[in-house]
Amino acid sequence: MYQSLLSVLKPLVFNGKSGVLHVEYKYDDQARLYLKEGLVEQVETGRLQGQKAAYTCMRWVSISTDFQEGEQDGYTPDPAIDTNAILSYLEKAAKNIEVINKYIPDPDAVFRVDSGRLHRAKKLNAEDFKIALLLDGKRSLSEVLAISGKSELAVLTHACKLILAGVARPAPAKKSMPEKERNDFLHALQDKLTELVGPAGSLLIEDAFSAMGIDAESLAREDIPQLLQEIGTLLDAEEREALAGWSDEYHLN
To answer: What is the distance between the alpha carbons of residues 43 and 78, in angstroms, rounded to a whole number?
Structure first.
């Protein structure tokens, strides 16, 4: 489950606590919030300090926390940090997170966007469309986060909007082909490509897997059309036609 810092930080503020709130972020970062008598005086992450650090960690939702009570030395208070502003933002974020937890089960969830519904959907903005382009039915939300350049909360919020708009749906789980079936297919494919282009045939298969972002062991039957399509981009027209004929005979279409 995703969570906001609100449930942890708010009681510390309201009870006038002093100490350090340590925050561990799932995606290779951490933060320290220095409190004195209920006020956040400084925030540090692995790379940032002050307002920028506060702005960053407020948008983390895959977190664990630990509070060490007592006076802490070794930090310089930042007067620009506004405790009330932090709580106000976290209050709003908490409402988003409640909805997100209902529709997005975990960071490894995979969603696929219906392009037809996407173009007909109303009330989606340019940022929603950017995330929609990354929901390809293969990438997990963790992978989307890594390449999006956005905060975790932003990615999940955009994804949730797409789900609620009926644009994004969970991608059906794919089952890898049984080992013998997979090996028989790949050997037959390599033989056909060797017949068409010579010894480079095996390299075409490797390049196609690389372009798809999968390895041979995870190949599912529903991946085969895309695999052949990727290989086809590396062939001339006559060779593509011959490969298509072979796939028909192999009962792949």
So the answer is: 8
8-state DSSP, 80: T
As given in the structure block, the two tokens for residue 179 are 């080992």
192: buried, middle or exposed (CB in 10 Å: 19+, 13-18, 0-12)?
buried
Report which DSSP code applies to 203. Answer: H
Query: What CA dihedral angle connects 246, 225, 215 and 160, to 10 degrees?
Result: 180
Tens digit of each residue's pLDDT (9 = 90 or more) over 30-73: 999 999 999 999 999 999 999 999 999 999 999 999 999 997 77
- The overall average pLDDT reported for the chain is 92
Give the HSE-up count for residue 31: Cα atoms under 13 Å, Cβ half-sphere: 31
From its phi and psi, is residue 65 left (phi > 0), alpha (psi between -120 and 50) or beta? beta
Nearest-CA neighbor of 145 among 121, 111, 117, 113?
111
Longest dimension (CA), the chain: 77
Q: How far apart are CA 101 and CA 110, in angstroms?
A: 15
Q: Which two tokens stand for residue 74?
A: 């070794």
Write down the pTM of the prediction: 0.71
DSSP three-state, residue 191: helix
- Among 45-54, 79-88, 175-184, whose mean pLDDT is lowest? 175-184
Order of strands across the sheet that contains 168-170: 136-140, 110-113, 168-170
Residue 52, token pair as written in the block: 């920028």
